[in-house]
Design brief:
heterotrimer, A alpha/beta (about 400), B mainly alpha (about 210), C mainly alpha (about 280), A: alpha/beta, Rossmann fold, CBS-domain, six-stranded mixed sheet, four-stranded antiparallel sheet, 16 helices, about 35% helix, B: about 210 residues, mainly alpha, MetI-like fold, about 0% strand
């Protein structure tokens, strides 16, 4: 994956090349990890060896019952391995106190697993609390994390989980897992219970967060598209958690190791290459960008001079909040700070498919693209179609 | 103990029969009353709330107190026993019937009306059968509960196994006092179990296979 | 057996918990409108009780009573009966809570978990045991008096508390327990911070049930010389004095209603926010 990034660097809107990325994760090494349940002939997980490099997002995929979730839960010892060793960095954690170990490993499950009787802030502050942080530090950390996952602390800190949408709950779940800044994050089908559009946004956010933090993430999913989109590497499992193939998404798509992988990847494997094309791989349009509260007349004048019909409005942190037309702006004195909930936004690392889905869902002909420094540009439907067409020709040719 | 059982097997059997007969008849009556009230109540949220409130408050009234209150107008005998037992039996069934009927999927009711069923037919063919498992759960709760209440009714000279307990009490320390009390208590628990099993069986037979769990 | 609010009251919570294990997690129950409704519901009951008390006091002050009647219904005798009754209830209630809740917690832990269905089955069957039988049996064993009455009351009312504690804890979404363990909470911390708080509504319903049951069942204590308001009823029946009988019955019923209301208020207030 880092190759792709490096190859496409050059455009100023690109994220820094892979080797410059900050890495705060540690490597994970499994040696002969086995789980045998009494009364069952075959082990659920059979002598798995696996090396997960620091700072990478590794996806576990495979049919249900293949042992991928059991393997994940052995990493934080929610399931005790029958035999074998697990190393975090160079440290053998197999004999460590599980509770202490788990406080150093973030854990995200479906629907966030938020405690419904605690506020968002309490939920997030649980692990720091157990680690005896002082109150002020916890409260600062909670706000910082809410910002990180794109929720306004002022609004969401004191809410209860049921007052949040599914996607918001999931964001809080991620924030909670990151609370004590653990080097490793385990995610067990976290986005399985949300609608496709929300899932795609959450995936984009996760990519963005991972680019900022560089954790080691192990992510279980049964959705191969999700694995292709998110993973630096993918592990394909068969029954007994047998590792059938462990490689980059590109390599697995181009060259499935066995018939089994090919079947699992699905018939449309070549077309899935499309999901590998990122928004950052295509030319973006650079629109007129302004902050809410700016003088509307001035903005309109500049936009007209530049021949723009639309202006992207951002909040004070540079996040896009609306995308009004010049005509609309010419009717007001200052640029309004209303947030357009339906504003189509994707990240630079989103796939073209995502971008297209987002436009369709918002019934818009374009989409705002955000990068690390805020708005990276906009993309219109024609660009996407052309890019898809080009990729398709490449794949077929 | 064994001698006691053998000696009084006739009386025990008679009182057991009386006890069960009182309970079964009262529960049947209560079921009819409760379903009738529920049918009247479940369409309006207000009346439903009222029914639930009455049911909850009614259940807090101690049965011995109610029996006492009923003695004043009706005197000793079977009348206060029947009224009290039926009263308590009605309440859980009423609550479950209201909940059960209100819980029937509105779209099913609409589709029943849509294919031309009358209000009554919809109630009889769709709503009541679907609510039946919940109603039956209420009947089971009622039956267990009034088996015990019927024992106290013996104090106001209602029929049943409670008379063994009270005769044990009145001759406490004397011969057979313990035996009498044990027979009364254990027989009630056993009969309650049997009735519950019968109701489970009734449930199997009367619940549509499509919604059986 | 007296006033079985309990089996009835539990029938619902139980099935709800049983057939929807996601219930605890499921959001959007009770918005502000229904909670306003709940408060209004909570207001009716104390008004009823107050009216009842008022009616009783007026009747007591105006009715022409015979000597025997006035002796029993004198304010001193009456208040002693009420205090006795409440004391019996309170002592039994404390013991019931001290036994029922810890035992319920214990029986849902680790190796005991297998026994849970068995215990619940026994608890359900126990509901059918006639309270009066229990009182008499204990009197033959421990003799007449307060002690036997308390033991009988405890035996009889510990079941709903035990049962609801277990059902409440079982109803907690297993994924939340796992999430707690997964973030490094100890088993005890998960119990105290996640499982018990989430089980509070069900446990409190069991406690209220037990309290109401206690107030009602304590009437029977008089049969084994345990004191309380039952005495008025029994004396009234024995001497054919309707005024005594009626006073005892009405006062017990009012007491039960009042306790039930208190329980509901506590449930309403103690219910964890966010549920």
């Amino acid at each position: 994956m880092s190759d792709t990034i490096a190859a496409s660097t050059g455009d100023t809107t690109q994220p820094p090349a892979g080797n410059e990325r900050r890495i705060s994760g540690v490597s994970i090494r499994l040696e002969g990890v086995t789980k045998r349940y009494s009364g069952q002939g075959k082990p659920a997980v059979d002598a798995v060896d696996l090396d997960i490099p620091a700072g990478q997002m590794v996806m576990f995929v495979g049919p249900s019952g293949c042992g991928k979730t059991t393997l994940l839960k052995m990493l934080n010892r929610l399931v005790e391995p029958t035999s074998g060793k697990i190393f975090l960095g160079d440290e053998d954690v197999t004999g460590q106190d599980p509770d202490q170990l788990r406080r150093r490993i973030g854990y995200v499950i479906q629907a966030g697993g938020l405690f419904p009787h605690m506020t968002v802030a309490t939920n997030i502050g649980l692990v720091p609390g157990m680690l005896k942080w002082d109150k002020q530090r916890i409260s600062d950390r909670v706000d910082e994390l809410l910002e990180l996952v794109g929720l306004d602390p002022e609004v969401y800190r004191d809410r209860y989980p049921r007052e949040l949408s599914g996607g918001q709950q999931q964001r809080v779940g991620v924030a909670r897992a990151l609370a004590a800044d653990p080097p490793v994050l385990l995610m067990d089908e976290p986005f399985g219970a949300v609608d496709p559009i929300t899932r795609q946004r959450l995936q984009d956010e996760l990519i963005r967060i991972q680019e900022e933090l560089g954790k080691t993430i192990v992510f279980v999913t049964h959705d191969f598209d999700e694995a292709v989109k998110l993973g630096d590497r993918i592990v394909v499992f068969d029954v007994g958690a047998r590792v059938v193939q462990y490689d980059t998404p590109e390599a697995i798509l181009a060259d499935p190791a066995e018939e089994y992988v090919a079947d699992f990847v699905g018939a449309g494997a070549t077309l899935k290459q499309l999901t590998l094309t990122r928004v950052s791989d295509v030319e973006l349009i650079h629109p007129q960008v302004t902050r809410a509260g700016a003088d509307a007349a001035e903005v309109v004048r500049q936009a007209t001079a530049a021949g723009e019909k639309y202006v992207v409005v951002t909040d004070r942190r540079g996040r896009p909040i609306s995308w009004p037309s010049v005509a609309e702006l010419s009717r007001v004195a200052t640029v309004p700070d209303t947030v357009d909930e339906k504003l189509p936004v994707v990240g630079l690392r989103s796939t073209l498919n995502d971008a297209l889905d987002t436009m369709l869902a918002a019934s818009q002909g374009g989409v705002v693209v955000t990068g690390r420094g805020g708005v990276a540009g906009v993309m219109v439907v024609e660009t996407v179609m052309a890019a898809i067409q080009r990729t398709r020709e490449e794949v077929q040719g | 103990m064994w001698d006691y059982l053998v000696d009084r097997r006739g009386l025990i059997a008679f009182q057991a029969f009386q006890h069960v007969s009182l309970v079964v008849q009262c529960v049947l009556l209560a079921t009819v009353i409760a379903i009738g009230l529920a049918v009247l109540a479940y369409r309006s949220a207000k009346v439903t709330g009222l029914a639930n409130g009455v049911s909850a408050v009614g259940l807090t009234i101690p049965s011995f107190a109610l029996l006492g209150i009923l003695l004043a107008p009706f005197g000793f005998g079977i009348t206060p026993a029947v009224i009290a037992v039926t009263f308590y039996a009605t309440l859980p069934i009423l609550r479950n019937a209201v909940v059960g009927l209100a819980g029937v999927d509105r779209s099913l009711v609409e589709s029943a009306r849509g294919i031309g069923m009358s209000r009554l037919a919809t109630l009889r063919r769709v709503e009541l059968p679907l609510a039946w498992p919940v109603i039956l759960a209420g009947i089971r709760v009622s039956t267990q509960m009034v088996m015990g209440i019927a024992a106290i009714a013996a104090y106001v000279l209602g029929p049943g196994l409670g008379s063994f307990i009270f005769s044990g009490l009145s001759r406490l320390g004397g011969a057979n006092a313990l035996n009498a009390t044990l027979v009364g208590t254990i027989a009630i628990v056993l009969l309650a179990l049997v009735l519950d099993l019968v109701l489970v069986l009734v449930g199997r037979l009367t619940t549509s296979r499509g919604i059986r769990v | 057996m007296t006033a079985s609010a309990p089996p009835g009251a539990q029938a619902y919570p139980e099935t709800e918990v049983d057939d929807a294990d996601a219930q605890v997690q499921a959001p959007a129950r009770g918005d502000s409108a229904t909670s306003r409704g709940a408060w209004r519901g909570l207001l009716v009951q104390p008004v009823l009780v107050l009216l009842g008390v008022l009616a009783f006091v007026v009747w007591r002050a105006t009715a022409g009573l015979s000597d025997t009647e006035s002796r029993q219904l004198g304010w001193d005798a009456l208040s002693r009966s009420i205090v006795d009754h409440l004391w019996l209830t309170l002592v039994a209630a404390v013991i019931v809570l001290l036994i029922g809740i810890p035992l319920g917690v214990l029986l849902t832990r680790g190796p005991f978990r297998r026994a849970t269905p068995f215990v619940l089955g026994v608890a359900n069957t126990g509901q059918a045991a006639p309270a009066i039988g229990l009182f008499v049996l204990l009197a033959t064993w421990l003799g007449f008096g307060f002690r036997s009455a308390v033991v009988a009351l405890v035996l009889y009312t510990v079941l709903p508390v035990l049962r609801n504690t277990m059902v409440g804890l079982q109803g907690v979404d297993a994924r939340l327990v796992e999430a707690g363990r997964g973030m490094g909470m100890s088993g005890f911390a998960v119990l105290m911070r996640v499982e018990l708080p989430l089980a509070v509504p069900v446990i409190l319903a069991g406690v209220r049930t037990a309290l109401v049951l206690l107030v009602g069942t304590a009437t029977l204590a008089t049969f084994i010389s345990g004191g309380g308001l039952g005495q008025l009823i029994v004396t009234g029946i024995n001497l054919s004095l309707d005024s005594l009988l009626f006073s005892g019955a009405v006062l017990v019923a009012l007491l039960a209603l009042a306790i039930d209301w208190l329980g509901r208020v506590v449930e309403h207030v103690a219910r964890p926010k966010g549920l």
